[in-house]
TrEMBL record:
Protein name: NADH-quinone oxidoreductase subunit H
Keyword list, A-Z: Membrane, Transmembrane, Transmembrane helix
Taxonomic placement: Bacteria, Bacillati, Actinomycetota, Coriobacteriia, Eggerthellales
Entry annotated with the keyword Transmembrane helix: yes
Membrane topology designation: Multi-pass membrane protein
Subcellular location as annotated: Membrane
Transmembrane helix is among the record's keywords: yes
UniProt cross-references to InterPro entries, sorted A to Z: ComplexI_Subunit1, NADH_UbQ_OxRdtase_su1/FPO
Chief place where the protein resides: membrane
Pfam families: NADHdh
Amino acid sequence: MTLVSTLIGTLLFTLIAPVVGCFLAGLDRIVSARMQGRVGPPLLQPYYDVRKLFEKERASVNSVESVYVGAALLFALLAGGVFFSGGNLLLCVFVITLSSLFFIMAAYSTRSPYAEVGAARETLQVMSYEPMVLLMAVAFFQATGSFDVGAVFAQPHPIICTIGLVFLGVLFILTIKLRKSPFDLALSHHAHQEIVRGVTTEMSGPTLGLVEIMHWCENVLFMGWIGLFFVWGNPISVALALLIVVLVYFLEIWIDNNFARVKWQFMFKSAWLVALIAGGVNIALLAFL
C-alpha cells in the first residue's frame, strides 16, 4: 500500500509541482523587479521561456548530458512524491541528493571548463547543506517517533515547538538550496554576477528546459519541508503552514536582492557551523532531556 501511495503521490507531484513552481518563479521575478524599482515580466514569463526552449532544436555536447539531466529530474519528482504522499523523510532526503549528483554529473560530462567550475561549486553547495538536511530528518524522528511525514498529523502540536533550532538551521541552508544570493555560487540567475551560467553553460534547448522544470519541482519540495514544521493534528494547521511558506519565500527573495555573493569558504564554514549549533544542540537536548 505504501508503494501504491508513493506512486500516486509521485504522479500528482509530477502534474502539480511544475505548475506551482512556475508560478513561484514568476512571482519571484515580479517581486525582485519591484524591489529594484522595475515593473518586471508577466507572471507566466518562466513558462514562456521554458516553452521556447522546448521549441528549439536539441543541441548538446554529447548524448550523455541529456540522460543525466533526465535522471536528475526523475529523482526530483520521486523525492517530491515520497514527501507529499506522507512517506519516509529520510528517503526523500537521499533521493533529492541523488538528483543533485546526477545534475553535477551532467555538467561534468560536457568537459567545458566553465561547466566544470560550476559543477565543482555545486558539489561544494551539496557538501555545505547536506549535514543540516540530515540532522533535520533525525530531529524529525526524535520529535515524532517516525521518519514518516504523515506522522505530523498525529502530533498534538507543531514539531517546531520541540525542534525550533533545527527549523532555524533549515531556514539558513534553504538559501543555498534555492540557489539565491549570497549563496548562488554554482548557478546564478542574475546576469550581473556571471558572464556564463556555471553548471548550465553548455546546456540549451530541451535539456535546459528540463533543468528549469527540475528547479521548479525542487522549490516546491523545499517549501514543503518548511511547511512540515507547522503542521499537526488540527486541519487548520495546513492553512498556517501555507502562510508561513509564503512568508519564508518572500524572505528568501528579499535576501536574494539585498546581499552580495560570498566566497565558497564562507558558505561551507557557516553552513556546517549552523548545522553543528542549531541541529546538534537541538538533537542533544531531545536525546538527554
